[in-house]
Amino acid sequence: MLPILERAEAALNSVDKNELNTLKSYQKVADPITMTMKVLCIIMKVEAIRKKEGIEMKEDYWETAKKKVLVNVDKLLKDVKSYDVQKISTIDTKTIEKVKTFLTVPEFDYEVVKRASSSAANLSLWIRAVIETYDAYLVVDPKQKELEQAETTLKQAESLLAEKKAVLKAVEDKIEALRKDFDDKNAEKENLQAKVDKCKVQLERAKKLIDGLAGEKLMWGKRAAELRESSKNVIGDVLLCSGIIAYLGAFPRAYREEAQTAWSELIQSKGIQQSSNFNLQNILSDAVTIGSWTNRFKLPNDSLSIDNAIMMQNSARYPLMIDPQIQANRWIREMEKSRKLLVIRPTQSANEYNFSLESAISYGFPVLFENVGEAIDPLFDSILSQKKIKQGGGWKMKVGDNFIDYSNDFKLYITT
Asked: What is the maximal distance between C-alpha atoms in the chain?
């Protein structure tokens, strides 16, 4: 039976889905195609659409095929491929006999159908394979059941023999087990004694450790309470931080505070908790990082400058800094000096800073584009919009008309 189904599957694999999709757009097709679809509907239990012709209602199998069978060609092929021996054996005899009446009809002959449509012809081969498989099943199934009965009898005899052998083996094993149990108990006794000695040593060490940590108990308890309380405000705090970073970077302090107050009231009105003493520096940075910026990298030690630095470091977009006092420029130069910062200016030739940009993007160097005016070279458009594509195991970024290797370490800073 399996070779028959394998030939049927090969025929189905040759079905041209585009041809079937084209056929279903036709109002009328050749009779061999219509007959193939009729037999397919019968075997798949698809109820025929009936149309009125004159005073009679007649079954229109081509209309049925278009609306119920060919409406999704991929599903049709998946459904017919799911017909294995087990599924074919469940088809009722009445359906099989009805399908058999078409097998000798000239219009259902493979070559005749093929001249009308190769895909319909392959479906007709599948239908014939289903009938052949069903007939073969009727012959093979009784013999298969006889074989299964004989195998069951053999297994029962073998099981009885194995049972007697098992009784003998159980007696032998019990003697061996008693001997082994005696040895195990002696080994267990020695092992338990060793564990007792080890536990005594560990208890002594644990007591010393607990005594040493007693002074930390109050501090850790207080810290745990603070963390439990602050965890209630995480959603509101992160939501407010996201809004500040996304929208308020270009505005002065007064407008930022006004917007932050309005957003806080809106968040609380929605039933979302946030910190009563919300501060961007406490949420997205820490004292060590801020101290490093202000002491080592010469960032001005004022709240506005620190907030600007935090927004820049947490933004996915490349920052543009209006920098009349060259404070941001100096901070970036100091902070990125160890990462081989590349500095470019609009006064350089396009070829010169184009080469620097491509090297930085590919090898992950930071770039400072300083002294920019109101207009910027179109070369930067694709970089600022971060036009990247996944290729192979890495990323590529568009620079001008070309795509070059992109490193995640690349960073672009722009100052006026």
From this structure: 104
Q: At what angle do helices 234-247 and 253-269 cross, to 10 degrees?
A: 140
- Going from the C-alpha of 389 to that of each of 315, 405, 406, the distances in angstroms are 20, 10, 9
CA dihedral 154→157→163→168, nearest 10 degrees, is -120
For strand 394-399 and strand 388-391, is the pairing parallel, antiparallel, or unpaired? Answer: antiparallel
Question: Which of 283, 315, 347 finishes a domain?
Answer: 315
3-state secondary structure of 49: strand
118, 140, 162 — which closes off a domain? Answer: 140
CA 245 to chain centre: 29
Structural domain range at position 298: 232-315
For residues 303 and 398, membership in a common domain is answered with no
The pLDDT-based confidence of 79 (bands split at 50, 70, 90) is: confident
Paired with 227 in beta bridges are none
Residue of 360, 370, 344 lying closest to 397 (CA atoms): 360
- Secondary structure percentages of the chain, helix, strand, coil, to 5: 70, 10, 25
At residue 30's C-alpha, the angle toward residues 96 and 6, to 5°, is 45
| Domains identified in the chain, total number | 3
pLDDT tens-digit map of 319-343: 888 888 899 899 899 988 888 888 9
Both 309 and 321 in one domain: the answer is no
Domain CATH for 371: 3.40.50.300
Asked whether residue 281 falls in the same domain as residue 335, the answer is no
**Residue 209 tokens, joined:** 């450790």
Looking at the structure, tell me whether residues 243 and 347 fall in a common domain.
no
DSSP secondary structure of 194-214: HHHHHHHHHHHHHHHHHHHHG
pLDDT digits (tens, 9 = 90+) for 187-226: 888 888 888 888 988 888 888 887 777 667 777 777 777 7
Are residues 311 and 321 both part of a single domain?
no
Say whether both 329 and 306 belong to one domain. no
Residue 147 CB coordination number (10 Å): 11
Give 297-345 as a DSSP string: S----SHHHHHHHHHHHH-SSPPEE--TTSHHHHHHHHHTGGGT-EEE-
